[in-house]
Automatic annotation (TrEMBL), chains A, B:
It comes from the Archaea. The lineage of its organism: Archaea, Thermoproteota, Thermoprotei, Desulfurococcales, Pyrodictiaceae. It is a multi-pass membrane protein. It comes from Pyrodictium occultum. It is found in: Cell membrane; Membrane. This is Magnesium transporter MgtE.
Length: 526, 526
């Protein structure tokens, strides 16, 4: 794989250094895209951007060997890994970003910015081109977008935003505070302003929030020739499909570029347009739209209003990014944290704290019930202290079985393998989980019995309590774990919200009641 | 949103029933795409496929009202929800699938098949068209693909597979046992067989495994006109891009259809071709390829060999499906289950058991350490039985803090916000987590102290032990939870593998040592 690398060389300045290193890079099969250097404290610091097949570590090693002792050579892939090198290079001379900008993709530039001190970052914002600025704000989290907005005057900002497509402009505006948003809207050039105002109505997590309006829209009696002209203009974001509407703007169908190429130039679009497999309304959940696109292999999904008027297209390119975000949100939820809006590198400790503490307190509250239950059996524990030794074991097993079952079902729901609305599927899931849990319960309680027997030095009754508890707990945790995600979906909640921490806590209470109750009854007979 | 619905009507047969219901549907704004019926036990059972804006529940309700008392009317969206209705309709007359096939997308048909008894399923396989069969095998899990293969003779199967693109044929072949695969390969028509043999070399989780080879490939001295002709043929999977190679087949660049439309018909492709932003080798991990495509907004990523020869393109359409699969795999891993290869509806109980038991036994083994530790403090517990009451509380809090931290970091790594290879990022993560954990620890130990004081009726020393344990445990769990995913990535393991169940167990041991040790030292002074 050829990938772009950053190579940073820092050494005693000497004549011909730049061409020397360039030559070395060339001899190692690396194509130099650009290089840039300056002097600090009598030493030369040069940054190379190269396309190479060698691993960064090996490339750096080879150059270091050739340059000899005191030279510092570092290399990394452009991207998150190389962000540190780029930041280091820019920290002393932020103005140089102007010369690198052309060779850097916005995500790479943003990654470097986030690793710079704020002061250097702000200096860079002021010298960046409009288009880089706009792209970076589009990629950035809210905190960074607001920092950029705060470093520049509104006219400058508005000109930068005008470099974007309307739907992208809106994505940026939605990261800014209300007041600034209005200021900027007023400064946008005309067709863009109106379009942006219209799009601002749709929240980012809806179909309307992810659609693009930069699409060629034509009438049924327009010709193929006219449609090709429109695509040729290269003005639209979508360049492989034209949308055909009637005189009221209602969607008639889509025509793809290969259909156009096959048709005669004079043919009318009305006769070519194919009704799409599905449409969505702008208020629909974007995840719902994603599911439909993936299921039916739709790469362009039209968004229409109640009256069937065409509003925009959702492209699979945009959706791929959305899917990744949604997956990342689920990962956070499954771990018991609300997904942060800002990047980790920008998140403030206090925000992280706030986002996590509520959940922990809630779990603490529920878990305090177990403490109360155990307290009620204080005398039992005083008499059989060894009981305490098995508490973590039975609890953990219950929690694990529950989260296994729940993650299997969350997964099957996410992939559309089962439906929360199908009676058949619900019955099926329950039967299958009961059967699986029975097998797991039998195996684990056998293991638990032997282990308890060994640890307690042959206490049969105690070991029976452990084994029996394990069996009951496993059955219970599995069924609850499998049911919760289905229930969540039926209630319209993201199944990942009822995540393993919550599940664990619920089963913990059950475990305590069963374990202490059984112990007290079977061993002490009361 | 207009979506396709299934409506099943079952009622006393009477003349004009079909047109009566069709009329009703029409008056409710539902367009009937097709309808099909048969008689069972003197009753008529009719299935309608309609495009409607009404919710299925409401639509069914309205029709039921109009038809009167004894009619059974059910409606559901086509898809996983409607699969049950479709299965019910087909169960009595599997042969009718022939008439429905045209109106059904393969994923919808597959969902219904999986909800039918095996016998009916097999009868359906035998009457389906080649192209439906092939598409269904492409979508199906291994178990179902093998069931289909087992119901048909190899010649029939090979003809079905020939309806697919070469990369799709290979995806199906990879689901079948080695012997059958070889049989089928031998029966494929010629250019397809060679192509399939070549593609079979790449495992499904590599770039080579997800690329398509159905791409127009042209030379640098070919003209724009020639390229447009090629696209016009509609023979290729990729219809908006042509690949330009040299006489050795080495990749020179890509030309998009809108470039072609703008250029003159006689222009040479060599002068239009743009070098791609990145390329991958076929052996590269498909997740790596996905990351690059998303980061740089690449919708067509070329796959080339060591010598730079063009092998195929990865399209963002295909990648979107891969991303969903990978996310689902992570969800399973985070819950402590290896992601199953078969659909949940096809998974056998014994397989589910096998997939889960190993993990549970491992966790049991580790957790048995905590039991041993607590046993060592048996006399301490005998004297202060209330100690046992707080064990679940402190353990659970530790586990939750750890999984919060780990899910934040897994998420940041997945989104490329931080890199496991950057020293800056690692130091930054550790500092930020220590700070956050200190805040969380302070808050939770204050809460814990008060709670313990209340529950114990004013035992200050015991409450101090609980509070202190909470603080230490939270610091420890957070730092371990944040470090594990970074460590996993550096070792080349999926961070989701070191999932919360494992993390919980590790922290449990730490918690036990700290809690029991502190209690014994602070309360009993030894």
């Amino acid at each position: 794989m050829t990938r772009r690398l950053l190579v940073l060389v820092e050494t005693q300045d000497r004549p011909g250094l730049l061409s020397r290193v360039s030559g070395l890079l060339h001899s190692l099969g690396a194509n130099v895209a650009t290089s840039l250097g300056y002097r600090v404290d009598g030493r030369a610091r040069i940054l190379f951007m190269v396309d190479a097949r060698l691993e960064p570590g090996e490339l750096a090693e080879r150059i270091r060997e050739q340059l000899g002792g005191e030279a510092r050579v570092e290399a990394a892939y452009l991207g998150p890994e190389g962000a540190e090198l780029l930041a280091e290079f820019l920290e002393d001379k932020p103005g140089l970003v102007n010369l690198l900008e052309l060779y850097l993709d916005p995500p790479d530039l943003l990654d470097a910015l986030l690793r710079l001190p704020e002061e250097a970052r702000r200096r860079i914002y002021r010298v960046l081109s409009h288009s880089s600025l706009a792209r970076i704000m589009l990629l950035a989290d809210e905190a960074t977008a607001q920092e950029i907005a705060g470093s520049l005057d509104p006219d400058h900002l508005a000109r930068a935003l005008a470099a974007l497509e309307p739907d992208e402009t809106v994505d940026v505006l939605q990261k800014l505070p209300e007041k600034l948003r209005r200021q900027l809207l007023g400064r946008l050039p005309e067709p863009l302003r109106e379009e942006a105002q219209r799009l601002l109505r749709y929240p980012p997590d809806t179909a309307g929030g992810v659609m693009t309006t930069s699409v060629p829209v034509l009438r049924a009696d327009d010709t193929v020739q006219r449609a090709l002209q429109e695509l040729r203009s290269g003005e639209h974001d979508v360049r492989d499909t034209v949308v055909v509407v009637d005189s009221q703007g209602r969607l008639l169908g889509l025509v793809t570029v290969d259909q156009l190429l096959r048709a005669g130039p004079g043919e009318r679009l009305g006769s070519l347009a194919l009704k799409p497999r599905a449409t969505v309304e702008p208020e629909a959940d974007r995840e719902e739209a994603a599911r439909i696109m993936l299921r039916y292999d739709i790469s362009r999904l039209p968004v229409v209003d109640q009256e069937g008027r065409f509003l925009g297209l959702i492209t699979i390119e945009d959706m791929a990014g959305v899917l990744t975000e949604e997956a990342a949100e689920d990962i956070a939820l499954l771990g018991g944290v609300e997904a942060p809006k800002e990047r980790y590198l920008k998140a403030r400790v206090l925000d992280l704290f706030r986002r996590r503490i509520l959940w922990l307190l809630m779990i603490f509250l529920v878990e305090s019930v177990t403490a109360n239950i155990i307290k009620g059996y204080e005398d039992v524990i005083r008499r059989i202290a060894l009981l305490a030794a098995f508490i973590p074991l039975v609890m953990d097993t219950g929690g694990n079985v529950g989260s296994q079952a729940s993650s299997m079902i969350v997964r099957a729901l996410a992939l559309g393998e089962i439906s929360e609305k199908s009676r058949h599927d619900i019955v099926y899931v329950l039967l299958k989980e009961v059967a699986t849990a029975a097998l797991i319960g039998a195996a684990m309680s056998a293991v638990g019995f032997v282990f308890a027997l060994l640890l307690s030095g042959g206490e049969v009754k105690l070991s029976l309590v452990v084994a029996l508890t394990l069996f009951i707990v496993i059955m219970m945790a599995d069924v609850i774990g499998a049911s919760l995600p289905i229930l969540a979906r039926r209630l319209g909640i993201d199944p990942a919200t009822l995540s393993s921490p919550l599940l664990t806590t619920i089963t913990d209470i059950g475990v305590t009641v069963i374990y202490m109750g059984l112990a007290s009854y079977l061993i002490l007979g009361r």
